[in-house]
Each structure stands twice: as structure tokens, then as C-alpha cells.
Specification:
Blueprint lengths: L8 E5 L4 H11 L3 E6 L12 E2 L2 E2 H7 L3 E5 L4 H11 L4 E4 L5 H4 L4 H5 L6 E6 L14 H8 L1 H6 L15 H24 L3 E6 H7 L2 H6 L15 E2 L4 E4 L4 H10 L14 H6 L1 H12 L4 H10 L4 E3 L3 H5 L2 H5 L3 E6 L2 E6 L23 H7 L4 H9 L3 E2 L2
Parallel strand pairs: 1-2, 1-6, 2-5, 6-7, 7-8
Antiparallel strand pairs: 3-4, 5-14, 9-10, 10-11, 12-13
Helix pairs in contact: 1-8, 6-9, 8-9
């Protein structure tokens, strides 16, 4: 099968998570992605798990990319970037707004001579506006967007927001950027024109709060208890997701409580929502008498969307993921490790993670040779510190 982006070349100025996630998706579809790093490298290169100095956290976000090291503060580095752009289609960066302009590599400057360039900027709050200059990492954006307090509102009895260990804003913003770039490629195919793309973490997080945005505008009576929560079993917990009348009917049958279908507290959605806490209390009179596996089997028989709570380690052994070949193996200086393939499959397009993660600056010389630099010129650039070879 073909690789959809096999003729596309990307200059990747991104670090950490959101930008690298975006550009790895492009690499997974066959794009040539050249990651441009500073001499100390992407900060995730130092994050565990580390084996022989190589980080799998870094590797899973940057598999299939080439790595070159440039000191962008030196004029000769800008000349290298301009030469690489002569054969590139896309530039992705997630510096704080204004940094690329100081390097002379902003969209307005580059587009003057490269009208087909697609230039994607990922930031916390946007390229312009009163908050544009603020530093931003995902945990701060979670708090700023309202996400953390909205999440806390679904945890009865809690008066302190959760700690952050999963960087939702980063991964979703990178995915939105990937979709925006694909749209810009389609537009360029039709018009021949490139464009700039401005993607923000703040608006990404708000896009996940659709019901909350609506409830912030209108008075809505909250449910007696959040409608999606754990139900206790004899040996643990299970999550039933009762979002439709059909799933509610299945829940009643699974628990042997078909009388709930005509119970004035539960029969109609609005009443059920107000009395959800009572429903869960009564459901647990049954669920605590069976194991999680038995409860799940009963829910499955009745078509109730549900799942036991599993660890990531347990999930990685799931037969469904094995069937879908969800994981790929990546090699780096520390050996091999598994990473997740993109969650989409095509009937006519090959998609999958590149099987390697480059060491810092590993491809500096080969990329410059391909761009037309001689060995003597490369040696001279290395001598001045403009480039670093791995």
C-alpha cells in the first residue's frame, strides 16, 4: 500500500509533547520529518524510562524522524534552514510566540519567497492577544481552561483539584494540529497556496468541555450524583456507561431489576438524572454480591457499555489490541521498546510508526549532504558550533 505523505517533507522545530506528537503522526504516514534540535536536545530526551541514556518517552514521540542539531542564534544556521525549506512543504514550531520572528524564520518572512509553505504554530494561548506571551505547559492550561474545576465538579466531596500526570492538552492539541495541517495540504492541492496555522492548547481544552460551555450559559440542575462513575463489585469496581434508554433497559435486566423501568424515580431520563445516586445505591445491592468478571458478563449479555478498571500494563496485553496490531517496536541506543501505532487504519494507505528513534544530531551530516553541503563546509559549520553531529 502507499504511504499517504511519502512525498511530503517536514521541518520540525517542536519539543516536548504537543508538537512532536503532531509531527510523529505525519512521519507515521510516510512524511520525511527532520527534527531540528538545540545542542542540549529536546528536554524529553532526559525523561525516564532511560536505557543507555536513551529515553523511551522521547522515542515514542519522535520515532521515524531524523535529528539534526543547529544553533539557531547563528546566522549560518538560518541559511541552513532556508536551504532545507527549498525542498520542504511544512514547518511546525511550538516556541513561545515571537521566537521564530527573532530568528528571522516567521511565516511572513518565509512566505514572501515560499508561497506554498504550510506553517503551523502551536502555543498555549495563540500567536496574538493579551495572553500570547505567557509561558504554557499542559498542567497550567488544564487549570486555565476550566477543565480541572469541571472535572472536580464530578467528584462528590472533593474540594481540591486533581494532581496532573496525564497531559491531555498536549496530545489533543497535537492531534488538532495534525488535522489542520492535513486540511491545509488539501487546500494547497486545490489552490497552490500555503498558509499559516495557529493552534492553541487553551481552545483545545475548551473544545473538550462542550456540555460545560453550554451549562455555563444557562441554569441547569446538576444530577444528584455524576451519572458516570464506578460501581462497586465483590472484588473491585466496574464502570457502566448508561447514556441511552437502551443501555438503561439493559442495566435493569442485568441487575434483575426490571421494576426500575416503571419506577417513578428512574423511568424518565430527567427523573433518573436527579435520582442517579439512589439508582447506584440500589444497583450496588446486587453488584457487590458478584465479582467484577461476573458483573461484566451480565452487562455484556444485555449490551450495557461497561468495563472493569484496568491498568495500562493490563491493557497492553488485550487481545483486541493484538488483533489490530496496535503496537510497533522501535529501536534506539538503549534497545527496543513498544509504542502505540496511530488509532486509525485505512483500506488503501499504509500507516505505522517508524522503527527507530534517532540519537541527538545523528542525521546532521546526512541531511546537510542531501541539501548540497560538502564535507568541508559541514566541518567548518561544526567548528563554529553552528551544527552538532551525533
Amino acid at each position: 500500500m502507499t504511504r499517504a505523505l511519502q512525498d511530503i517533507r517536514v521541518l520540525d522545530f517542536t519539543t516536548t509533547i504537543a508538537g512532536p506528537h503532531c509531527t510523529r503522526l505525519m512521519a507515521d504516514l510516510g512524511a520525511t520529518v527532520i527534527k531540528i534540535e538545540a545542542a542540549d536536545g529536546d528536554l524529553l530526551r532526559s525523561r525516564p524510562p532511560l536505557r543507555n541514556g536513551a529515553s523511551t518517552t522521547y522515542g515514542q514521540l519522535n520515532a521515524g524522524k531524523q535529528s539534526i542539531v543547529l544553533d539557531l542564534k547563528q546566522p549560518a544556521a538560518k541559511d541552513i534552514v532556508l536551504r532545507l525549506l527549498d525542498t520542504s512543504d511544512i514547518l511546525v514550531e511550538n516556541f513561545r510566540p515571537g521566537v521564530m520572528q527573532r530568528f528571522g524564520l516567521d511565516y511572513t518572512t518565509l512566505a514572501a519567497t515560499r508561497p506554498g509553505l504550510i506553517y503551523c504554530s502551536i502555543s498555549g494561548y495563540g500567536q496574538t492577544g493579551p495572553s500570547a506571551g505567557l509561558a504554557a505547559y499542559a498542567p497550567a492550561v488544564h487549570a486555565a481552561s476550566g477543565f480541572d474545576l469541571a472535572h472536580m465538579s464530578y467528584q462528590p466531596g472533593r474540594d481540591r483539584p486533581d494532581n496532573c500526570g496525564i497531559y491531555v492538552a498536549d496530545y489533543f492539541t497535537g492531534t488538532y494540529a495534525f488535522g489542520a495541517i492535513a486540511t491545509a495540504l488539501a487546500h494547497r492541492h486545490a489552490t497552490g497556496r500555503g498558509q499559516s496555522i495557529d493552534v492553541t492548547m487553551l481552545e483545545t481544552m475548551l473544545s473538550m468541555l462542550g456540555p460545560e460551555v453550554q451549562m455555563a450559559q444557562f441554569d441547569v440542575e446538576p444530577p444528584g450524583r455524576p451519572m458516570f462513575g464506578p460501581v462497586k463489585t465483590r472484588d473491585g469496581f466496574i464502570m457502566p456507561a448508561i447514556a441511552s434508554e437502551r443501555s438503561f433497559q439493559g442495566l435493569c435486566r442485568a441487575a434483575g431489576r426490571e421494576n426500575w423501568l416503571t419506577d417513578g424515580r428512574f423511568a424518565i431520563y430527567g427523573d433518573r438524572r436527579r435520582n442517579w445516586g439512589h439508582l447506584v445505591d440500589e444497583l450496588e445491592l446486587w453488584s457487590v454480591t458478584v465479582t467484577t468478571a461476573e458483573c461484566q458478563a451480565a452487562f455484556d449479555r444485555e449490551g450495557v457499555p461497561s468495563s472493569p478498571y484496568r491498568t495500562v500494563r493490563e491493557m497492553m496485553d488485550d487481545a483486541q489490541l493484538s488483533h489490530r496490531r496496535a503496537f510497533a517496536t522501535v529501536e534506539d541506543a538503549g534497545g527496543s521498546f513498544k509504542v502505540l501505532n496511530p488509532p486509525f487504519r485505512f483500506s488503501e494507505i499504509d500507516v505505522g510508526v517508524g522503527g527507530y528513534a534517532s540519537a541527538l544530531g545523528e542525521n546532521t551530516r546526512s541531511v546537510l549532504v542531501a541539501a548540497g553541503y560538502t564535507d568541508a563546509e559541514i566541518d567548518a559549520l561544526a567548528a563554529t558550533g553552528t551544527i552538532t553531529e551525533g
